[in-house]
């Protein structure tokens, strides 16, 4: 359901989110539901607006029962620096709202019931989203850090695995919590959504890597200069294995050696990508070098 458009970003309400608001209404705490709605909206709008400021397409925000999602262009995920700034925007907005709320309280503008709940919502949302696990903001920041060191595919696998691990841990902790009445079913349900989303991030890693490779030529053409990373490979190494260490924002040159450790030649990343797309991942890199 489309709610409206704010600063060029379309706001959508997931049907399950509407059902959750209906439950708040029936329970007589609709005011708290609307406060939570506002906190989530500001958090996701912060992501969308920062992404747009950085030149990333981000025209839609959807509010879900246990959070929300700002739908940004896939180019964001293969640019570590811009992904970090965009991910930080959400928790930063929560901290800004906490600061504003404390300031208003000091001036006597405070609601004895909703004020503390507003602070609680912001603290919980910022803390939860800063967990270093995909698809949370902290996971995106960690993925961006790791991608520049070990490559985007292994970085995605590691942070998605952390997301799955955190989800399982939350469920294990919530079971005795439900038994003792310390928490409700919303905690394990949130963990289920976290595990599902982390699994989707993990399955998308190979496609993300292909997109990263395809963008290199555009980056080099646009900027004119990229830092170089030199690699050395034996002639029998298949292209699919060769490209695994390729990093974002680096242009790779590969020196190829034969089985007797003799120099065969040097090829650049574009040549490797072209051969990968046209000849397949099993082609040995030695076949790309003229003897």
Automatic annotation (TrEMBL):
Q: Which UniProt keywords apply?
A: Hydrolase, Membrane, Metal-binding, Metalloprotease, Protease, Transmembrane, Transmembrane helix, Zinc
Molecular functions per Gene Ontology:
metal ion binding; metallopeptidase activity
- Give every Peptidase M50 domain span: 37-103, 117-169
Principal place of residence: membrane
**Domain of life per record:** Bacteria
Cofactor section: Zn(2+)
Q: Which PANTHER family match?
A: MEMBRANE-ASSOCIATED ZINC METALLOPROTEASE M50B (PTHR39188), STAGE IV SPORULATION PROTEIN FB (PTHR39188:SF3)
Record's protein name: Stage IV sporulation protein FB
Species source reads Desulfallas thermosapovorans DSM 6562
């Amino acid at each position: 359901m489309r709610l409206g458009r704010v600063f060029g970003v379309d706001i959508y309400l997931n049907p399950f989110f509407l059902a959750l608001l209906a439950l708040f209404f029936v329970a007589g705490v609709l005011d708290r539901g609307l406060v939570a709605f506002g906190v989530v909206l500001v958090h996701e709008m912060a992501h969308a607006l920062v992404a747009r400021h950085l030149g990333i397409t981000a025209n839609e925000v959807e509010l879900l029962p246990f959070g929300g999602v700002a739908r940004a262009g896939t180019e964001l995920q293969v640019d570590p620096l811009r992904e970090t700034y965009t991910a930080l925007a959400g928790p930063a907005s929560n901290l800004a709202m906490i600061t504003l709320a404390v300031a208003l309280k000091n001036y006597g503008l405070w609601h004895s019931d909703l004020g503390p709940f507003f602070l609680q919502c912001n603290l919980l949302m910022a803390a939860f989203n800063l967990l270093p696990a995909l698809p949370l903001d902290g996971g995106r920041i960690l993925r961006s850090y790791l991608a520049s060191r070990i490559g985007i595919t292994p970085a995605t696998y590691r942070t998605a695995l952390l997301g799955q691990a955190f989800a399982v841990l939350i469920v294990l902790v919530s079971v005795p919590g439900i038994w003792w009445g310390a928490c409700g079913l919303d905690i394990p349900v949130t963990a289920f959504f976290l595990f599902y989303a982390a699994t989707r991030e993990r399955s998308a890693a190979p496609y993300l890597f292909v997109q990263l490779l395809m963008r290199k030529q555009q980056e080099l053409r646009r900027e004119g200069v990229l830092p170089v990373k030199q690699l050395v490979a034996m002639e029998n190494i298949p292209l699919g294995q060769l490209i695994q260490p390729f990093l974002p924002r680096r242009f790779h040159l590969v020196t190829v050696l034969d089985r007797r450790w003799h120099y065969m030649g040097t090829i650049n990343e574009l040549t490797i990508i072209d051969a990968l797309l046209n000849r397949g991942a099993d082609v040995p890199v030695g076949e790309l070098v003229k003897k």
